[in-house]
Amino acid sequence: MAKRVVLAYSGGLDTSVAVRWMREEWGVEVVACAVDVGQLREGEEDTIRERAVAAGAVEVEVIDAREEYARDFLVPALQANALYEGKYPLVSALSRPVIVEHLVASARRHGADAVGHGCTGKGNDQVRFEVSTRVLAPDLEVLAPVRNWGLSRADCVELAAKWDIPIGATKEKLYSIDENMWGRAIECGVLENPWSSPPQEPYSITKHPKDAPSEPTDVVVQFDAGVPVALDGERVGLVECIDRLTTTVGGYGFGRLDMVENRRVGIKSREVYECPASLALILAHQDLEGITLERDVMREKQRIEIRVSELIYDGMWHAPLMQALRAFVDSTQQHVTGEVRLRLDPGRCYAVGRRAPRGLYDHDLATYDAEDAFRHQDSEGFVRLWGLSAETWSRRQGPGAR
Ligand code: ARG
Question: What is the pTM of this model?
Fold first, then answer.
C-alpha cells in the first residue's frame, strides 16, 4: 500500500472527506493538489487551503494551470473542432489530462508513491485520471477512495462535521457540477429524467435567451495558424479571449446543450452543459477552415476530428494514436489565418462573414458575372466523363436498357 498520495483536490465535500478518510483507513499521508483550470473564483484559493489543512493534508498546493491548459489542451482541441458525439466540446475530458500532469509532477516533488482522485466508479473521469497516470508514471499507484468507501452523501456530511472540516455542504445536493474555462457540465437530480426539461437554476455562465440584449451584436474573432489571437481587432491572450467570449456569448444566451451521451463505461447519461466560449470558437474556427482548407484535406480532417473527439473523451489524450492524429491536425493549420465575424442574437451565434489573406476563395472563379475566369468549355467534357460509369450502367442494366 502507498505511503504518500497526491490527491486531486477540488475543495468540495468528497475530496475533503477523502483526505481524512484515506489517512484513517489506509494510513497514507495526503498532499492536496488543486489545479486551477479556470474554475477557481477570487479568494477561493484561501478557502481551499484552509479546508485541506483542516481535513488533515500534510501539504497543500494550488497550481494556476490556466495558460497551459488553454495553450496545450484547448487549442489542439479547437483546431480539431473537437465535439464529442457531434455536440459536447469535452469540457471535463480536456481538463483531466492537464490535472494528471500536475499530480504526477507534484508526486515527484513530494516523494509520493501514489496519486489519487475523487471520482466514482460510474463515470468517465476515473478513466481519464487513471489512463493518463498509467502512461505518464506507470510506477505510481492510483488511489480512488470514493470508488471504494461506500459512503452516501449524508454519511460524508456527517463525517465532515465529526472531523471539523469546514464545508458548507448539505445532505441534499441538487446537481453535480464540473467547470473550467471551456465550460460547465451539470448532472444529477431532476436531470436524471431525460424527459424533464432542465430548470434555470444550475446555469451560471449563460443567460436565458429572453434575458439577452434584444439588439444583435457582432464579434470578430481573428486566428493566426488556427490559434485565436484577437477579438474585434484587439490582441488578447488565450485565457482572456476565452473569458471575454464566455461573458459576451453567454450573455446572449448561447451555449447551452442538453444531450444524452454515451459514457466510456457503457452507460447512457443525460448531461446539460453551458459552453458559450468553446462553442463560439469552434464555430468560428470551422468557418475559417471552410475558406482556407483545401477540399480533400478538409474532408479527411472531418473524419479525423470524430476520432480525436472520441479519444479525448475516452481518456486517451496521452496515448500514441492521439499524438499521431494531432500531428495531422497540426499540419493542416498553417494557413488557417484570418477573421470570422460572429453574430450574436438572443440564443444564437453564427458566422456572417469571413476573410483570410491566404484564403482559397477566388472571386474571379466563383462569380456569376460574365467576365469570370472560369473556363466554361472545360465543364462539358468533365461532366460527361464524371457521369460515364453511371450512364454505361444505365444503358446496359438500368433504366436506359428498357
Ligand atoms: N459527461 C461529461 C464528461 O464525461 C462531464 C462529466 C462531468 N463530471 C461531473 N462531476 N459533473 O466529460
Answer: 0.96
